[in-house]
């Protein structure tokens, strides 16, 4: 991927409003961490009130995945989820601009030795994650301890893309951003023994996907995890990052490498992945990205759910 360089076009008046917003955010993120959490919850409450389409998607997902909950329980979970999403906005800024030592005081990492052992053995790693709202800060915190390459899709706004990449790359000096469609580069890096962050928990359409249950609902699940593991001669190491209660920071859990993966069939592999995703979400359902239309692709003949 091309080098991330400042461009003179960023000084054009069409970017001035974004510069102003980034400047305000840069100032706000200097505030104490507990205050940022409160600001994030306030932002989440505003999003809940005004982001009607996203609220509808998240509510529908919760109905599908947690049918045993009462309407009151799901509504409470939905509000907590929007609060978590609001906090994630400030966590993004923290990961971009906080001094690294300040960030390190907030994190506890378990299982880092699993990544280190794979690296020592020259083994490529698919670091399998899911889309929690803590994704941005979790990648930054783990990236300070171990080099992680990432699948990357450029932002439509070139200035925001520049700032985002700048903030991410400072934690991972020798990390490489790989275009999401550049499968050949990904495979080559896996064969070179690198660790690549990859999340298979979103709906990318019926092509190259299989319908397997997720919370009992048929979900289009990509088969690429199996293919990448096989072609890259890699192992799958699951990881999850969660926000701890009462402002105590973050816990990153790196799990042992999966044995017997890929398995006997892609369907079996996809089911195994979705079962792991379910377990991770169930532990902290308020922190998952429920505003994604996870079930937008339906099996032939099934009605749309959104």
Q: What does this 3D model show about the protein?
A:
- It is found in: Cell inner membrane.
- Belongs to the LpxL/LpxM/LpxP family.
- This is Lipid A biosynthesis acyltransferase.
- It comes from Thiopseudomonas denitrificans.
- The chain crosses the membrane at residues 12-29.
- The chain has 306 residues and is α/β, with parallel strands linked by helices.
- The chain has a domain at 8-15 and 107-287.
- Helix content is 46%, strand content 15%.
- The protein contains 11 helices and 9 strands.
- The strands form 2 sheets. Strands 1-9-8-2-5-3-4 form a 7-stranded mixed β-sheet, sandwiched between helices. The protein has a two-stranded antiparallel sheet with strand order 6-7.
- The longest helix is centred in the N-terminal third of the chain and has 27 residues, at 71-97.
- The two termini are 36 Å apart.
- The model has no long low-confidence stretch (mean pLDDT 95).
């Amino acid at each position: 991927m091309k080098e991330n360089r400042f461009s003179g076009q960023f000084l054009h008046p069409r970017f001035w409003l974004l510069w102003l917003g980034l400047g305000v955010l840069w100032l706000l993120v200097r505030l104490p961490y507990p205050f940022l959490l409160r600001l994030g919850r306030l932002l989440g409450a505003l999003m809940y009130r005004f982001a009607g389409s996203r609220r509808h998607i998240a509510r529908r997902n919760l109905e599908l995945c947690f049918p045993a909950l009462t309407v009151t329980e799901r509504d409470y979970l939905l509000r907590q989820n929007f609060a978590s999403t609001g906090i994630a906005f400030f966590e993004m800024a923290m990961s971009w601009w906080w001094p690294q030592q300040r960030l390190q005081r907030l994190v506890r990492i378990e299982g880092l030795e699993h990544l280190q052992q794979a690296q020592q053995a020259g083994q490529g790693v698919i670091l399998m994650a899911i889309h929690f709202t803590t994704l941005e800060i979790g990648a930054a915190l783990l990236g300070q301890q171990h080099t992680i390459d990432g699948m990357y899709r450029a932002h439509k706004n070139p200035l925001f893309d520049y700032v985002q990449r700048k903030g991410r790359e400072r934690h991972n000096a020798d990390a490489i951003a790989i275009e999401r469609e550049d499968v050949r580069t990904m495979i080559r890096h896996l064969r070179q023994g690198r660790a690549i962050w990859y999340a298979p928990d979103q709906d990318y359409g019926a092509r190259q996907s299989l319908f397997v249950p997720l919370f009992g609902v048929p979900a289009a699940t990509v088969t690429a995890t199996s293919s990448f593991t096989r072609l890259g001669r890699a192992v799958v190491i699951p990881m999850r990052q969660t926000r701890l209660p009462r402002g105590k920071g973050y816990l990153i859990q790196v799990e042992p490498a999966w044995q017997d993966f890929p398995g006997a069939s892609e369907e079996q592999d996809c089911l195994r992945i979705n079962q792991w995703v379910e377990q991770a979400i169930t532990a902290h359902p308020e922190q998952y990205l429920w505003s994604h239309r996870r079930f937008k692709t339906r099996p032939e003949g099934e009605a749309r759910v959104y």
